[in-house]
Amino acid sequence: MAEPLWTLSEIVSATGGQVIGNAPDSYNGVSIDSRTLSQGDIFVAIRGDTHDGHDFVSAAHQAGAGIAIVSRVSPAISEGGAVLLVDDPLRALERLGIAARNRSEARIIGVTGSVGKTGTKEALRLCLSASGETHASAASYNNHWGVPLSLARLPRSARYGVFELGMNHAGEITPLVAMVRPHIAIITTIAPVHIGHLGSLEAIADAKAEIFSGLEPQGIAVLNRDIPQYGRLKDAAYAAGVERIVTFGEHAEADARLEHVRLKETCSVVAASILGDAITYRLGAPGRHIALNSLAVLAAVKLAGADLALCALSLGSLEPPKGRGARFKLRAAGGEITVIDESYNANPVSMSAALALLGHTAPASGGRRIAVMGDMLELGPQSRRFHGDLAAAIDAAGIDMVYACGPHMKSLWDALRPDQRGYYAASSQDLVDPLLDGVRAGDVIMVKGSLGSRMALLIEALRRNFAAIEADAA
Questions:
Q1: H-state helical runs in 66-116
Q2: pLDDT value of residue 202
Q3: What are phi and psi of 83, to 5 degrees?
Q4: Do residues 11 and 99 lie in contact, with contact meaning Cβ atoms separated by under 8 Å?
């Protein structure tokens, strides 16, 4: 029988809390959302931006929570089941995460970067699972509550652990990486994401370089050799005491080097040299940016002592996550429509990569390549330029038509040729009807924008209006 994730005595020891009520002796899950609980889980009642978890303790008990970690007790809270009273539930969650990390013998990999964190983390999960039990952050759990929650879920039996670390201000990664303490730290790339908060690419690089502060002794930094900020990151790593740096990219001096890539609509074929090993593999997810990040994945796998050949074989089944390139087909009058769902988020680098990916996807007879684009947010004073500059990427990718929404995207709209303009609207909601009226059989439609632009509304509208032909790729 598998060991429990947590015992009651371990929870009490880690958090210093006081048990009230009849609590089970063991637990196999941790959640901060009463809707995702499994029978016997630990529910942590943290206070979020819009909700206080204490308002959902009764629902958590009804859903089967074995114990709820709370900072206050009322009859409504305590009558439903056992609670653990602490000073601060979020701090208690952090202590659980730290305790899980302290007891773990897994090789730990931390992933950050302006673009590609989640995709790289998922590729590592897939690859490492071929060599042993692997635990990784769920979804994009990369912030002040997502990281300790992911750590608290780390099984003591895991052989590998992969954790995503995010930020939008300087100083945010330092406390996160202090909890994770990775053996290997990957920085995928530096791009103008959150530049409105940080002011410059150099400041973004410095914020990402905070990951080096928490590396374990003899830890290894894996850095993108192709980017202008490589030298700055390398210097920051050495200043933090990192003794070994491994590089990836197309650069002639990269340790994990891309030799050749054949880009296809739904996959790529890659030839690479990974720390001296020549290897050719198929990537189930398309795109040059994913091929480049796969070099970091393979390097980290080898550095972690996992099987490189099994990893490369696993990458053939890699699929884009929902909202990050997942594809599906819909039935339209006279044929079908292909939709590329990139609606989760956007920045200048990922938007250009998504446009290039659309350019590699051939429409059916009579169809067009259509980019549906919403605002890229948090770009600061340079926002107008970043949006207008996308016109060049649209031309390079051979995009036939653009539907755009949001005040920032007006700069792109003004830069487009008249024949490229499909429709412009103030918001994604206002774009729904023009898009549905404008698409036709044979079209390939890519939808992308920052999360705050609510581009998922357009994905949902397409699904409602046209019948699905096959299940999502993700």
A1: 75-78, 89-103
A2: 94
A3: -135, 160
A4: no
Strand 83-85 to strand 18-20: parallel, antiparallel, or no bridges (unpaired)?
A: antiparallel
For 122, the token pair is 């998922």
Q: How far is CA 127 from the centre of its chain?
A: 16
Q: How far is CA 355 from CA 69, 257, 301, 473, in A?
A: 46, 25, 30, 19
The widest CA-to-CA distance across the chain, in whole angstroms, is 70
Contact 404, 346 (CB under 8 A): no
The domains located in the chain, with CATH, are: 6-87 (3.40.1390.10), 104-317 (3.40.1190.10), 326-468 (3.90.190.20)
Residues sharing a CB contact under 8 Å with residue 238, sequence separation 6 or more, in sequence order: 245
Q: How far is CA 22 from the centre of its chain?
A: 39
Rg over alpha carbons for the chain, rounded to the nearest Å, is: 23
Nearest-5° angle of CA 137, CA 138, CA 141? 70
Residue 348's φ and ψ, nearest 5 degrees, are -55, -40
Q: Among all chains, which residue has been given the structure tokens 């969650």?
A: 93
Dihedral angle over CA of 130, 28, 181, 83, nearest 10: 170
Q: What share of the chain is helix, strand, coil (3-state, %, to 5)?
A: 40, 25, 40
Can you give the pLDDT at residue 334?
A: 87
pTM for the predicted model, two decimal places: 0.87
- Using CA atoms, how far apart are residues 178 and 451, in angstroms rounded to an integer? 28
Residues of the chain with pLDDT under 70: 1, 470-474
Tens of pLDDT, residues 112-127: 999 899 999 999 999 9
DSSP, residue by residue, 196-215: HHH-SHHHHHHHHGGGGGGP
Q: How many whole angstroms separate alpha carbon 456 and alpha carbon 11? A: 39
| Phi/psi-derived region of residue 294, left when phi > 0, alpha when psi is between -120 and 50, beta in every other case | alpha
